[in-house]
């Protein structure tokens, strides 16, 4: 009977110890922030980039083939809107709000009648948006001043170096002489 009482008391103590250990383990998770396990989101550039310079090159009266040479193949063409070409472009980068641009070219009798689109970036502005802005690390000063050198103990005087024994002028042959 004493063995069963000892076991139940030991089991209760063991259960209490495990319960306390589990509570302290959960308390250690408070150091993690939401950004600790943030997934990698790749940069996505989709669509046909149309620059401000390309937009300015399109004028009413141009044929479709010339528009296609300047802007490229339209992203969206529709059977129901055969007289309309849509060019859409978007950039999605981690830490930056998504940017979308769009240009619509309207045709009448296979020539440009009008062009509609928002504010398009120039080619140099587009390149600037793609470049990653990283701060250069501060260069470390590698020069030690006299005060810095005084902080370290002076080197001990080296013992005089004894010269090594003289090497023989010639060495014995490695292979036995032929007989």
Q: Which SSEs are present, and which pair or pack?
A:
Layout: H1 2-27, E1 44-47, H2 52-57, H3 64-71, E2 76-77, E3 84-93, E4 96-108, E5 111-117, H4 123-130, H5 146-150
Antiparallel strand pairs: 1-3, 2-3, 3-4, 4-5
Structural class: alpha+beta
Q: What is the CATH class name of the domain at 44-130?
A: Alpha Beta
Distance between the termini: 97 Å
Alpha carbon gyration radius:
39 Å
Low-confidence stretches: none
Order of helices and strands: HEHHEEEEHH
Shape: extended
* Discrete helix count: 5
What would the CATH topology of the domain at 44-130 be?
Beta-lactamase Inhibitory Protein, Chain:B, domain 1
Strand content: 15-25%
What oligomeric state do the depicted chains represent? single chain
The percent of residues in helical segments reads 25-40%
Beta-strand segment tally: 5
Going by CATH, the architecture of the domain at 44-130 would be 2-Layer Sandwich
Q: Main β-sheet, in a few words?
A: 5 strands, antiparallel
Mean pLDDT: 79
